[in-house]
C-alpha cells in the first residue's frame, strides 16, 4: 500500500505562493506545462532517497517515454515508522529546489521552506524537542527552518533571544528584529511591535539598521549575521573585562560593559551593578539594585544571592525579608540543579555510571557558626561581597579602604596587602603597583626589595598610570627580577610566590577562603545575612575564573592610590615636575631669545647651543613620561620641536663663525 506524492519544480520567474490557492494554481500550471525529457533533478532526488530508505519508496523512473513535467511516486505505509523517510524526502527536495505535494492532505512543501496551508508544520520537531527538554535540538531545528524563511522559526528564535530560553544568551536587538520578521498573525505582530516600542530612540535606530541587513539576507547568510552579532556582544564583554584591568582604559571598559548589559548580558549587568557603586564619586545603590535585579531575572545565580542580601540589608531600597527569602531560595535551587546536572554528566562520562570526581569535603562547623559582623557601611559591605566572590576591582577598592581607613573601617595594612595581592593576581595594574609598594617597604607584612622591583615592573607592563622613579635594578639583579616577573604574571601564581617567599600578609589578615565559606553556606542552607564578613577576618579568596565572576568596570573618579602622599618612590597619576619639563621650558625660552634678541657674539651662540642640547633632551624625556591623550601628545611634541629650530640656527651660526676665523 502506497501513499501517493508529487514532485514539481517552480520556474524561477514565478513568485513563491503564500496561500493554498496560489500553491494549487501553480501546481496545476506546472502539471499542464509542455512535455519533455524527465527532469534530471527528479532522477537525482529519487536516487538519494532510495539509497537511504530503499524499502520505503515505490519509485519508477520510467524511460524515454516518460515526459511528465511532474513526478509521482509512492511511500510505503506498511512501515512501522514512515516519518523519517518522509522528512528525508522533504529535505532532499529542498536541497534540489523542488516542491513536494501531498494530494491527500492538500499540503505543499515548498523549496523555500514554506508550507502555505500549515506554516507551523515544519517546526513540529522543534516544538516536540522543546517539550521534551532538548533545547539544543530545538534550537538547531529552528535555525534550519529560519534559514529557509519560515516565519514560525524566525519568531521562535526571536523569543529565545528575548527571554534567554533554549540555552541562549539574550540579545535584545536581534530579538526585536527576528520577532518582527517572524510575526505571522495578529497576536505575534502585536507582541513584536510592543517589544520594539519599548526601545529608546537611539536603540530603535540601531535595530532598524540591523533589520535592513537581515531582511536583505537569506539562508546561511542570515544565520551568519545572527551569529556574528551575538559573538560581537560576547567578544565586547570579554574585551572589556581585560581592558578594565588597565588603568588607562577604565572608563572605556565601563561604557562597554553598560552597553553590553543593555543587550541582556546577565554577567555584564551583574558587573555594572558594582560599577555604579565604586565607579563614581557618589555611589548609586538604587542603580546597583536595579542592575542586580535584572541579572537575577536573567537567571544569573550570583546575582540572586546578592539581590537577596540587598533586600535583607536594605541596600539600594527598602528592607523586604520576603523578597530576600525568595531570591535566596531561588539561588540555592539553581545551584543544586547545576550540581545535579554536573553529577549526571560526570556519571555518564565515567565507566559503569560511577562518578570519578572527588567527593566534596564536608563543611566545617567553624565556617557556618562564626559570628558575622557588618560594618554598617553600605559601600564597604556591598563591595566586600563582590570581593569575596573573587572580583579584582572590588578587592582593589577594599585594599584602598583598609590602607587609608575609609568606609567605616580602621587602617589595616595587612588586610589591605591581602586584597591588593588578590587583585594583582587577577591582573589589576594599580593593585600590582600598590602591592609592590607594600612589599618593598614592608607594609602589612615582610619586605623584599627584589620582589618589590619585580612587581613594579609587572605593574608597568600591565598599564598602570602610576610611575616609579629611581628603581635602580643593578646588573646583578636583572636576571632574578626578570625571572620573578615571568613567574608572578603566570595565572594563579602571584600569591603562591608571595607565600613561598614568606611575604604573605601578617597574622592579623587571617581568613577563610571564599570557596570554602560558600560551600559551607550552601550545604547548611544559611540565610543571605550569613554571607557577611567577620569583623576580624581579612579574606583573600582564590580568584574565580572569568566565566564565573567577571572583572568589574573601572573607577571613573581617578586612580585611588595613596592620596595622602605616602608613596616614597614618587607615584604619579597626572603631571609632575622633572628635568624633562624644565628642559622643555628652557628650550622654548631659547627659541624666543634667538628670534627676539639675536646678537652675533660667540659666547651667546655657544650658550644657545648648550640650551638647544638641553631642549633636545627635554623633548626626549617629556615624550616618555607624559600619560596624555594623542592630541595633547602632539601639542607637546610640537612645542618640544621649537627649541630644535633654535639649536639648528645656533649650530649654523657657530659653524659660520668658525669658518670666518
Architecture overview:
The chain has 661 residues and is mostly helical. It is 59% helix and 3% strand. The chain is built from 27 helices and five strands. The protein has helices at 20-31, 40-52, 83-96, 124-131, 135-147, 151-163, 172-182, 186-197, 201-215, 220-243, 250-262, 266-278, 285-297, 301-313, 321-348, 365-369, 378-388, 392-404, 413-425, 429-441, 449-462, 475-488, 494-500, 514-524, 579-596, 602-625, 630-660; strands spanning 2-8, 57-58, 71-76, 99-102, 107-109. It has a five-stranded antiparallel beta sheet, sandwiched between helices. α20 packs antiparallel against α21 and α25 packs antiparallel against α26. The longest helix has 31 residues, at 630-660. The protein is elongated and about 115 Å long. Residues 362-372 and 507-576 have low confidence and may be disordered.
- Give the overall shape, derived from the CA principal axes: elongated
Mean pLDDT: 79
Helix content: 55-70%
Task: Indicate the radius of gyration in whole angstroms.
Answer: 35 Å
Percent range for β-strand residues = under 5%
Summing up helix and strand content along with how strands pair, one would put the structural category as: mainly alpha
Cross-sheet strand order for the largest sheet: 2-3-1-4-5
Figure out the total of helices: 27
Separation of termini? 121 Å
Could you provide a short overview of the structure?
With 661 residues, this protein is mostly helical. The protein has 27 helices and five strands.
Task: Give the helix/strand layout.
Blueprint: E1 2-8, H1 20-31, H2 40-52, E2 57-58, E3 71-76, H3 83-96, E4 99-102, E5 107-109, H4 124-131, H5 135-147, H6 151-163, H7 172-182, H8 186-197, H9 201-215, H10 220-243, H11 250-262, H12 266-278, H13 285-297, H14 301-313, H15 321-348, H16 365-369, H17 378-388, H18 392-404, H19 413-425, H20 429-441, H21 449-462, H22 475-488, H23 494-500, H24 514-524, H25 579-596, H26 602-625, H27 630-660
Antiparallel strand pairs: 1-3, 1-4, 2-3, 4-5
Helix pairs in contact: 2-3, 4-5, 5-6, 6-7, 7-8, 7-9, 10-11, 11-12, 12-13, 13-14, 14-15, 17-18, 18-19, 19-20, 20-21, 21-22, 25-26, 25-27, 26-27
Amino acid at each position: 500500500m502506497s501513499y501517493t506524492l508529487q514532485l514539481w519544480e517552480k520556474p524561477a520567474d514565478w513568485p513563491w505562493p503564500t496561500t493554498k490557492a496560489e500553491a494549487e494554481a501553480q501546481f496545476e500550471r506546472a502539471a499542464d506545462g509542455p512535455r519533455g525529457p524527465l527532469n534530471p533533478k527528479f532522477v537525482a532526488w529519487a536516487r538519494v532517497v532510495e539509497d537511504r530508505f530503499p524499502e520505503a519508496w515505490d519509485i519508477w523512473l520510467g524511460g524515454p517515454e516518460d515526459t511528465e513535467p511532474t513526478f509521482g511516486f509512492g511511500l510505503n505505509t506498511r512501515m512501522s515508522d514512515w516519518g523519517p523517510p518522509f522528512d528525508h524526502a522533504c529535505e532532499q527536495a529542498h536541497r534540489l529546489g523542488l516542491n513536494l505535494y501531498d494530494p491527500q492532505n492538500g499540503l505543499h512543501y515548498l523549496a523555500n521552506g514554506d508550507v502555505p496551508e500549515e506554516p507551523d508544520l515544519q517546526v513540529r520537531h522543534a516544538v516536540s524537542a522543546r517539550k521534551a527538554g532538548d533545547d539544543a535540538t530545538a534550537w538547531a531545528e529552528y535555525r534550519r527552518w529560519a534559514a529557509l524563511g519560515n516565519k514560525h522559526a524566525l519568531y521562535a528564535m526571536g523569543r529565545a533571544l528575548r527571554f534567554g530560553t533554549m540555552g541562549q544568551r539574550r540579545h535584545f536587538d536581534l530579538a526585536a528584529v527576528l520577532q518582527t520578521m517572524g510575526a505571522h498573525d495578529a497576536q505575534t505582530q502585536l507582541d513584536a511591535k510592543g517589544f520594539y516600542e519599548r526601545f529608546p530612540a537611539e536603540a530603535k535606530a540601531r535595530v532598524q539598521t540591523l533589520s535592513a541587513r537581515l531582511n536583505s539576507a537569506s539562508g546561511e547568510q542570515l544565520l551568519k549575521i545572527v551569529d556574528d552579532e551575538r559573538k560581537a556582544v560576547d567578544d565586547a564583554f570579554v574585551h572589556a573585562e581585560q581592558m578594565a584591568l588597565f588603568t588607562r582604559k577604565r572608563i572605556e571598559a565601563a561604557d562597554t560593559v553598560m552597553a553590553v548589559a543593555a543587550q541582556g548580558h546577565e554577567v555584564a549587568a551583574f558587573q555594572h551593578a558594582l560599577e555604579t557603586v565604586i565607579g563614581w564619586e557618589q555611589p548609586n545603590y538604587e542603580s546597583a539594585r536595579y542592575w542586580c535585579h535584572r541579572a537575577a531575572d536573567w537567571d544569573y545565580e550570583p546575582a540572586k544571592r546578592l539581590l537577596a542580601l540587598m533586600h535583607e540589608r536594605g541596600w539600594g531600597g527598602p528592607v523586604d525579608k520576603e523578597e530576600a527569602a525568595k531570591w535566596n531560595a531561588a539561588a540555592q535551587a539553581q545551584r543544586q540543579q547545576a550540581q545535579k546536572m554536573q553529577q549526571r554528566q560526570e556519571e555518564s562520562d565515567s565507566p559503569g555510571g560511577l562518578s570519578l570526581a572527588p567527593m566534596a569535603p564536608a563543611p566545617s562547623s567553624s565556617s557556618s557558626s562564626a559570628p558575622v559582623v557588618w560594618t554598617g557601611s553600605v559601600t564597604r559591605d556591598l563591595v566586600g561581597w563582590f570581593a569575596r566572590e573573587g572580583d579584582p576591582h572590588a578587592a582593589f577598592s577594599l585594599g584602598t579602604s583598609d590602607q587609608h581607613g575609609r568606609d567605616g573601617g580602621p587602617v589595616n595594612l595587612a588586610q589591605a596587602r591581602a586584597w591588593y595581592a588578590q587583585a594583582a593576581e587577577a591582573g589589576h595594574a594599580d593593585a600590582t603597583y600598590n602591592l609592590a609598594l607594600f612589599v618593598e617597604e614592608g607594609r602589612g607584612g615582610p619586605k623584599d626589595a627584589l620582589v618589590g622591583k619585580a612587581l613594579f615592573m609587572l605593574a608597568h607592563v600591565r598599564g598602570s598610570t602610576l610611575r616609579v622613579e629611581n628603581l635602580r635594578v643593578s646588573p646583578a639583579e636583572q636576571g632574578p627580577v626578570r625571572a620573578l616577573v615571568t613567574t608572578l604574571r603566570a595565572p594563579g601564581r602571584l600569591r603562591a610566590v608571595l607565600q613561598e617567599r614568606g611575604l604573605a600578609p601578617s597574622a592579623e589578615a587571617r581568613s577563610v577562603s571564599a570557596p570554602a565559606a560558600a560551600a559551607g553556606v550552601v550545604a547548611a542552607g544559611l540565610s543571605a545575612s550569613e554571607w557577611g564578613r567577620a569583623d576580624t577576618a581579612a579574606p583573600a579568596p582564590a580568584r574565580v575564573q572569568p566565566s564565573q565572576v567577571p572583572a568589574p568596570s573601572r573607577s571613573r573618579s581617578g586612580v585611588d592610590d595613596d592620596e595622602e602622599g605616602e608613596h616614597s618612590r614618587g607615584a604619579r597619576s597626572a603631571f609632575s615636575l622633572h628635568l624633562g619639563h624644565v628642559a622643555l621650558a628652557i628650550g622654548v625660552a631659547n627659541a624666543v631669545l634667538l628670534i627676539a634678541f639675536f646678537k652675533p657674539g660667540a659666547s651667546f651662540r655657544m650658550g644657545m647651543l648648550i640650551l638647544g642640547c638641553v631642549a633636545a633632551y627635554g623633548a626626549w624625556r617629556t615624550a616618555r613620561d607624559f600619560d596624555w591623550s594623542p592630541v595633547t601628545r602632539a601639542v607637546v611634541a610640537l612645542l618640544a620641536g621649537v627649541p630644535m629650530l633654535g639649536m639648528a640656527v645656533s649650530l649654523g651660526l657657530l659653524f659660520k663663525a668658525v669658518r670666518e676665523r
